[in-house]
Model the fold of this input.
Amino acid sequence: QPGRIPAENPADASVLINRGLLHRYLYLTADNADTSLVSMYAYTDGSLVADNNLDIYLLTQIENTTDALESAGFQIEQEVGVTEVFNHLDSQIGLWTISTHGTLTLLPRDPPDRPYGDGYFSLRNSQSPYGFEDSLTVRESPSDGDSLVNPVAFAAEAANHVIKSTSELDAAVDNIGSPIVILTACLLGGTGMPLMLMQHGAVAVTAAPRTVYFQPAGHLSVLLAQGLSEGNTIGEALSNGLTLTSSDYANPITGRDPRDYANQQVLFGDPSVRLYEPGSSPHVGSVDSGYEEFNTHKPGRGIPSTAALGASVYLQDAISVVTTDFDYYENSNFSDFIELLFLRSTVIIEPNTLPSFNDNLLLHTDDIRTYVRAGGILAIMGVSGTGDWSPWPITYLASGSGSTVTIVDPNHPLLTIPNNLSTGIDYQGHFESLWTNFTVLATDSTNPVIVAASRGSGKVVLTTTNPVGVARDEFIENVLEWTASPSIRLKDITLSQSIIWANDGVIVTIELADIVGNAIDTANLRVWFNATEADVVEVGSGIYIVTLTGEFTNNHLGTFDLSLVARKVGHDTLSLTLEDYLFIRPFPWLMIGLLGGVLVAAIVGYYYLKRRRGDSFTFKREKGSRSQPKGKSKEEQRKQKEQKEKDGKFDAKEFFGV
Done:
């Protein structure tokens, strides 16, 4: 049985694929991987069922399921109370099997909202190990004798019935570990519930995209639990179960009751994952291997994530306030630094030491560019001298110094997380010119002294500042935390038409997202065409539109750069210029006039020639309208022919009256 990856974007697909590959290890670290949650609210209890081999079974869905899981060493939690079910699921169990009612939307429609329904399912409003019609001891009421437990069909229990949505479950749980989930309910395979469960950690989810019936669906859920308990993969267990229970996946026997025709199941996730027997797969507590110490050993330390370059203890003292996990380099061992560059998350260069590193940086400009684009954080403090080493165009001017800067982007995370930086920072000189995609964070009141940009998957900050004391320590701590702050990125930008004439109305659609594709809503987005700012309207889901009216395009002809700045609290500012993005053409009146003149001349010439030949000017010649010469001598006919040939020649002098 193949599996499906219910991902909405490449980033989600990558996470879900890797989760399947790493399930063995994720399973071992889940807090309650040795526990199975059995939630039987509406189920089969004591019914004789026949499989596709005509073998007869007594189906008691609760006992058949729990017996199989207990035999595999699992502890069993039985619960259908909504609060308790959500809490158990959030405790990182190994498996959840639920049998209940399900639907696509709260108010079902025909046709249903497949596959976009939120997904709704039934549970009980208070604690109970399972659903019942009469009592905990009399699960199936003798009044109907159908061997089905359907609490909503009995008034006393219907009063305790609650309907919950995928959205409510999504809000109630966090990291649910790495469970396998068996959803035995109508239609939930056509909703957002499988994806939501996998986004919270589930490694595989089986669910029905169509309406299912008690006995065949209950029989399949039991076979799934038994197959997993016997060590089969989820793909094998589902294939075997469908072969035995569903006419959709086996040849139906002639004359057989076809009521299980819709007993379909979709497997979301990796079909090769399996349950691991708790006795031979003991729980391993999860730790942060990068920081956890065992005696003096840090097993996951590897290469420290931070590298500092300098010529004194300036950076060493500042970084040590936050962490001891860093390496320090000087110009003499720069080659060692480059060798391990791509294993670092953050690189910081000490103020006023750039000239000593300039030659080495110039040799490795491409490495620096690649490092940042691949996700590295580069912070160069106290920039001075030429900027020829920089992959991003800058020029530095040494004039001007002071001890106070002006913050111009006060919500930028580099200036606010975790410390709100003071304006009391020493600086020497300023940036005279900058790459257009830098964001200015602080100035000397006029010129930039701190600038930052996102590039590829990484970030870069350049300063002409030399903070000391607390100001130094706070800035360095912010740089070390900066990697965790999301950046606003331009996901897409489109024009409503490719060729734009004066007086055309044009719509520019801009989509903003973070690096993993999450939409950036409520951003403060400003857009300019050259120096002219345009109004921006947010439409939702990270999409913003700029409407250029006919009046705008009529008054602004030529080529335009598009510049945009997007800000949002807690996010890196996006500053971006797209050169020559828009070209507005003047309306082609001259071309139309020339073409019109050629057409008129052609028409006039055509009718002139017809007149010279004596042809009719009607578009449709009447049959027999031209009489043939009769009774003329051969000499007369020859002269008439010569005259017609002479008349047919174009005489420019005669045409223009010269």
